Amino acid sequence: MMTTLKFRNNDEMPILGLGTFRSEPNEVYNAVLSAIKIGYRHIDCAAAYGNEKEVGNAIAEAIKQDLVTREDLWVTSKLWNSSHGEENVVPALNQTLEDLQLDYLDLYLVHWPVALKKGTEMPEKASDFIPLSEVPLTNTWKGMEAALEQGLAKHIGVSNFNENQLKAIMATAAHQPEMNQVEMHPFLQQEALKSFCVQNDILLTAYAPLGSLGDENTTLRLLENDTIINIADSRSMSPAQVALAYTMQRGIAVIPKSINEARLLQNLETLNHTLTEEDIALLRDLDKGHRFIDGKFWEVENGPYTADSIWNA
Ligand code: A2P
């Protein structure tokens, strides 16, 4: 199994990282410190997760205990929607760096192709949004490029962008996006988006690679799928390892979230397994275009987005 993804300048990102979405501040400190202890070197963060201070404390402690150096780690974070606009990017990134107690990020991503008014965490009404006609994605991208040029982020990219949105920023970019982080797992394989990204030298990271088990509203459970369970049984793997291995063998990074030590280790140990061509063919057939993170939270009355337009506009 390949263990890293290579960027254009040959920097290598560990293909398996720790997700921190929905990790409560009081839980995430131990999760990050345990993860680093057992060998994780890639931590995926975001200002919007509300826990970057605790993640930062854990990273600082790991460095203090000589478990790792800063250079050993790959740290990603994301610009929240309320800081779109060229002039807002570096200040938002500086806050993230302060919270994480770092002087640079390895990768900084535009979290969503959605702009919200300053101070808005999640929108409740149409006036909480800023129309993209007022703050185009190309304008926000200029702020991302400034962050790169100032050395605050070694690489820049996006998250939740579709092909058209990528094309829009690529058309005027001085520095091309190098990563698109999107939901991906055997039920949502996004083959067309993947081809576009591969053709344009854009790497992919899969969020919710286990099918967003943390989502209590869903009854469709990826890890209870018979095909996944059968492959897991025949290869002495867990269903989670089968899901993660499949996505990584497609050349895509995965960032499973866990706050449990045994599951942290189990997920990392996926790197010791390889699925066969036969397994892969069976898993390929599971694609049903199913989004667990469906984007409905961007739909408000008379607002600029619908759950459909978010993905397809
Ligand atoms: P926990 O933190 O208690 O381990 P995703 O990354 O797809 O959003 O999934 C995260 C969810 O999956 C969390 O609820 C996490 O719970 C759970 N989880 C993480 N690793 C495993 C695993 N190996 N097996 C089963 N559930 C897991």
Strand order, sheet with most strands: 3-4-5-6-7-8-9-10
How many structural domains does the protein architecture include?
1
What sequence of helices (H) and strands (E) makes up the elements?
EEEHEHEHEHEHEHEHHEHHH
Globally, the shape reads globular
Global mean pLDDT: 96
Described by strand count, sense and barrel closure, the largest sheet is: 8 strands, parallel
CATH superfamily grouping: NADP-dependent oxidoreductase domain
Low-confidence stretches: none
CATH class identity: Alpha Beta
Please give a structural write-up.
It is a single chain. With 313 residues, the protein is of the alpha/beta class. It has a single domain, classed as TIM Barrel (Alpha-Beta Barrel), CATH 3.20.20. Helices cover 37% and strands 12% of the residues. It is built from 11 helices and 10 strands. The protein has an 8-stranded parallel sheet. It has a two-stranded antiparallel sheet with strand order 1-2. Helix 1 runs parallel beside helix 2. The radius of gyration is 19 Å and the shape is globular. The two termini are 36 Å apart. 46% of the residues are buried. The mean pLDDT is 96. Adenosine-2'-5'-diphosphate (A2P) binds next to helix 9. Adenosine-2'-5'-diphosphate binds next to helix 9. This is Aldo/keto reductase family protein. Pfam families: Aldo_ket_red. Keywords: NADP, Oxidoreductase.
